[in-house]
Design goal:
With about 325 residues, the protein is α/β, with parallel strands linked by helices. The chain folds into two domains: about 170 residues, Peroxisomal Thiolase, Chain A, domain 1; about 130 residues, Thiolase/Chalcone synthase (Peroxisomal Thiolase, Chain A, domain 1, 3-Layer(aba) Sandwich), CATH 3.40.47.10. About 30% of the residues lie in helices and about 25% in strands. α3 crosses α4 and α8 runs parallel beside α9. The protein is globular. It binds oxa(dethia)-CoA (UT7). The site of oxa(dethia)-CoA has 19 residues, from α2, α6 and α8.
Length: about 325
């Protein structure tokens, strides 16, 4: 069987830094609460006029360059996001056009915080079967345009930031140790409403429930809502189990893992996962203090940050793990 590997990674964040103090001026929250409960110090916000597909472009270009390829070498595009540009078509269509890559098949993938891991699984499957040679996988989010900046939204609003990450998944040649080894994905739709944004309801007529003569979506449907404690509890258990499954499938001990790159939702979640796995603190990558939760972008962004810091190097045994809305969760084990 053809082996698949990550041949390049890239990231991009908007320039605008939003501190906890800035949010505290708008909402009933504080720097102290946000840092203690989440580990977040600041996040980035995209300017008005910037869409998710636009934010993704520099990240994708960086990943293609890192892979030593050009746009012409990419034969499939996967775009993972929970903040798509529009209802339809998918952000992959807008992104493909802006990248000037007309003709390359492109699709959206909607599995929220686990989007990058589902995307790696699909991309690696395409490469392993010989269907495509170089798949561009993007995880990108513009959360900040769809957050509730009133006190009612403070539990969700302080967590999220904007950002984009990308990877190219390519054929791994015989002499190359880099390989995507295993994929353990899960979902449990019984918890779909534990973290969701329900702007429209296609079962309703009209599908957007208008309020008053100006056609305003009611506040409870306009913003994301979350049962934070429930998500937290399931995340700690699900992420540990997904790492353990991957270790078992690859006959690895926890001590064999060089680097754990978890989805960045809450520093406390990731610390509890590491403690539960008995993984030393220096083997985990944290970026949440700088970027908050960037959902589908968080893992490729964390990989880029770790590579820039010299912590992620070629040949390392790397475990990726995520949990989020859906619920969806899983792990991918790779030699970088
Ligand atoms: O990407 C994956 C999806 N998301 C997650 O994984 C998030 C998972 N959940 C969490 O990270 C945590 O549950 C939160 C950070 C969201 C909340 O932390 P918590 O320790 O679970 O707090 P809590 O929800 O139990 O709320 C504790 C208190 C409440 O006040 P009372 O009832 O004790 O008076 C909240 O109203 O904190 C209050 N609170 C806030 N206070 C200041 C909630 N949000 C805020 C806020 N600032 N932003």
């Amino acid at each position: 069987m053809v082996r698949a590997r990550i041949s390049g990674i890239g990231m991009h964040v908007p320039e605008r830094v939003v501190t906890n103090d800035e949010l505290s001026a708008l909402l009933d929250t504080s720097d102290d609460w946000i840092r203690k409960r989440t580990g977040i110090g600041e996040r980035r916000y995209a300017d008005e006029g910037v869409s998710t597909s636009t934010l993704a472009i520099p990240a994708a270009e960086a990943a293609i360059a890192d892979a030593g390829l050009t746009k012409g070498d990419i034969d499939f595009i996967i775009f993972a996001t929970l903040s798509p540009d529009h209802h339809f078509p998918g952000s992959s269509s807008y992104f493909q056009a802006k990248m000037d890559m007309a003709g390359v098949p492109a699709m959206d993938l909607r599995t929220q915080c686990t989007g990058f891991l589902y995307g790696l699984t699909v991309a690696a499957s395409f490469v392993r079967t010989g269907l495509y040679k170089n798949v561009l996988l993007v995880g990108a989010e513009v959360h900040s345009h769809a957050l509730d900046f009133s006190d009612a939204g403070r539990d969700v609003t302080v967590l999220f930031g904007d950002g984009a990450g990308a990877a190219v998944i390519s054929v791994s040649h015989a002499e190359d140790p880099s390989e995507l080894h295993s994929f353990h994905l899960h979902s449990d739709g019984r918890y779909a409403s534990s973290l969701c944004l329900e702007v429209w309801d296609i079962a309703a007529k009209p599908y957007i429930q208008h309020e008053g003569q100006h056609g305003v979506v009611p506040p409870q449907a306009r913003w994301p809502r979350m049962n934070g404690r429930e998500v937290f509890r399931h995340a700690v258990v699900g992420m540990q189990q997904a790492v353990q499954e991957a270790c078992q499938a690859n006959e690895l001990g926890i001590e064999d893992i060089d680097l754990l790159v978890p989805h960045q939702a809450n520093m406390r979640i990731n610390e509890l996962v590491a403690r539960g796995l008995k993984l030393p603190a220096e083997k985990i990558v944290h970026t949440i203090h700088r970027y908050g939760n960037t959902t589908a972008a968080s893992i490729p962004m964390a990989m880029c940050q770790a590579a820039a810091d010299g912590r992620l190097q070629r040949g390392m045994k790397v475990m990726l793990v995520a949990f989020g809305s859906g619920f969806t969760w899983g792990s991918v084990y790779l030699t970088y």
